[in-house]
Amino acid sequence: MEFVEGIKLSSGRQLGLEHIDRKNIARILTYAMAKMVFTDRLFHADPSPGNVLILNSDQVCFLDFGAFGVVTRRRSRLILDS
Fold first, then answer.
1. Please, are residues 29 and 19 in contact by the beta-carbon 8 Å criterion?
2. Distance CA 38, CA 69 (A)
3. 13 φ/ψ sector (left φ>0, alpha ψ -120 to 50, else beta)
4. SS3 per residue for 33-51
5. Cβ distance 35 to 42 under 8 Å?
């Protein structure tokens, strides 16, 4: 266990998010999830807003990997081909 300083994604429009580039955060999260599924084939199965911290405009941190999933190479290719 480790303490990580950041702003929970679930905090919405609350204090601390006004200086964050939201489009870039969305881009980073999309890339991270795609990399988990299609490259690493091991993914966070509960990436809810309460399990994601925004560290700054170009860094996020996933929390609580108690639930994760595995994607076979065949399944990842099927997803990409559909």
1. no
2. 12
3. alpha
4. HHHHHHHHCEEECCCCHHH
5. no
pLDDT digits (tens, 9 = 90+) for 39-71: 998 888 888 888 899 998 889 999 988 899 999
9 secondary structure, DSSP code: G
C-alpha radius of gyration, the chain, whole number: 14
How far, in Å, CA of 62 to CA of 53, rounded?
A: 6
pTM value?
0.79
Could you tell me if 5 and 15 are in contact, meaning their C-beta atoms sit under 8 angstroms apart?
Answer: no
The residue length of the chain stands at 82
Q: Which residues face 62 on adjacent strands?
A: 52
- Token representation of residue 25: 């955060």
Q: CB of 37 within 8 A of CB of 69?
A: no
Sign of CA dihedral 80, 51, 23, 29: negative
Which DSSP letter does residue 10 get? G
Tokens 């099927």, residue located: 78
